[in-house]
Amino acid sequence: MTTVVAVYTGQGLAEPLKAVFQEVLPGVRLVNIIDDSLIGDVVKAGHIPAGVSKRLTQYFQHGEELGADIILNTCSSVGEVADAAKGQLGIPLVKIDEAMTAKAAAEYNAIAVLATLPSTLEPTMRFLAKQAEAIGKEVTILNGLAVGAFDALVGGNPAVHDRILLETALTVSDKADAIVLAQGSMARMEGAIREATGKPVLSSPRLAAEQIKEMLAERGLL
């Protein structure tokens, strides 16, 4: 059976991504590897510690051993570790924000990146800049760090998290052609942010699933 192994650094995205896969890739087996200590270690250190890189790379390799046809890295904070690990695998590794950032770079000139953690915001902004550079385009990338939103969420106040996210989106949207949601777990806010700002809003889970569907189809695995 065609299999995708998704590697998570936290708990929040597993169920939403499962729902997306059931809709976009209903005949594909989705296997989850979750280590929710990873994002905690990244947040605490303020960067990606060597131990996180090592464990994450091992999880990608375990995914291949589990029979994956494609590995999906679901965390934008560790996307650069995924880039380094690609050469160690015999199967494709997809970063969850690849399709989203490519679409944003191709279609918009001023892009606000909304995130609740600097550890996610900064790699996403760098990746977006690389995607634009790859197509020979100059884009303006705006910092949309929603300060306090992450603490509210882990503190059990999702309503406060959502309010801060919306307020931040409104602050940066005036100068932006579009808004990119740096964390896949923020996809549930896509509609609300689009309605509040009147701007196009891009989130990663569905776009990643569609990218994987295309890759599997090209290899005759669907």
Layout of helices and strands, plus pairs?
Blueprint: E1 3-8, H1 14-24, E2 29-34, H2 37-45, H3 50-65, E3 70-73, H4 79-85, E4 93-95, H5 98-107, E5 110-115, H6 118-134, E6 140-145, H7 149-154, H8 158-173, E7 178-181, H9 190-197, E8 201-202, H10 204-218
What does this structure look like?
This protein has helices at 14-24, 37-45, 50-65, 79-85, 98-107, 118-134, 149-154, 158-173, 190-197, 204-218, and strands at residues 3-8, 29-34, 70-73, 93-95, 110-115, 140-145, 178-181, 201-202. It is α/β, with parallel strands linked by helices and 222 residues long. It has two domains: 3-96 and 206-218, 3-Layer(aba) Sandwich (Rossmann fold), CATH 3.40.50.1860; 98-203, Rossmann fold (3-Layer(aba) Sandwich), CATH 3.40.50.1860. The strands form two sheets. The protein has a four-stranded parallel sheet with strand order 2-1-3-4, with helices on both faces. The mean pLDDT is 95.
How many runs of DSSP E, i.e. beta strands? Answer: 8
CATH class of the largest domain: Alpha Beta
Large-scale geometry: globular
User: In the CATH scheme, what's the topology name of the largest domain?
Assistant: Rossmann fold
- Backbone CA Rg: 17 Å
Distance between the termini: 10 Å
Note the quaternary state here: single chain
How much helical structure, as a percent, in the residues? Answer: 40-55%
InterPro entries: Asp/Glu/hydantoin_racemase, Iso_Racemase_Enz_sf
Organism: Paenibacillus algorifonticola
Pfam families: Asp_Glu_race
Family: Belongs to the HyuE racemase family.
Relevant terms:
222 residues; alpha/beta; Rossmann fold; 2 domains; four-stranded parallel β-sheet; 10 helices; Asp/Glu/hydantoin racemase; Asp/Glu/hydantoin_racemase
